[in-house]
Amino acid sequence: MTGDESNPKGLMERQTTGEDRVRMTARQLSEPRTANWVASEADWSHEPTKRVLERLVDDGILHRDESGTHTTYYPDYRRQAMQEAMRLRDSGHTVEELTDRLAEMKTQIRDWEDEFGVKSPNQLRGTLADESLDADEEDRRREIAREWEHLQRRIRIVGFAIREWDFLAPTTEPAEANS
Which residue ranges does the record annotate as region Disordered (predicted)? Predict the structure, then answer.
């Protein structure tokens, strides 16, 4: 194995174009990012990155926000949620397994609510003002707040996949109008 093959990023750069890397980076965004940020992540220059991002906006894959100091790009969260729900449906898990996972995520959030006496990740972050907390506990609470937000997003997607289980089933036949 050569040095490049042991470095996944080096391998990715050798086997993809700059445009491919921008597209891959853009499709994985979970929050608004600038063209410079995407260019840096994709290891490509700013101007061609911006052109690719604009094409992705034109294609409806990304949205552009010019309301702040810098133009940012962010994904169509509805499209991401639908794709994730379809992946869950196609993953080989049963609806019962997903229902169990949904219950586990909700239980985890209830446990945090009980442990900290708060009802949201931001309320948990607000507890960081408590001067009696040491640095480790502050870090723990920040991490829990991030995980809590992640679980809230996952709950919505898993719940949607469960509710729409039959609709999301892969099919090779057109739906009948009379069924």
Answer: 1-22
Cβ atoms of 66 and 35 closer than 8 Å: no
Q: With contact defined as beta carbons under 8 Å apart, do 73 and 29 qualify? A: yes
pTM: 0.64
Give the residue carrying structure tokens 């229902």: 99
Cβ 60 vs Cβ 76: under 8 Å: yes
Q: Find tokens 């586990």 and name the residue.
A: 104
Place of tokens 């869950």: 88
Q: Return left, alpha or beta for 5; rule: phi > 0 is left, psi -120 to 50 is alpha, else beta.
A: alpha
Q: What is the rounded distance in angstroms from the CA atom of residue 40 to the CA atom of residue 49?
A: 9
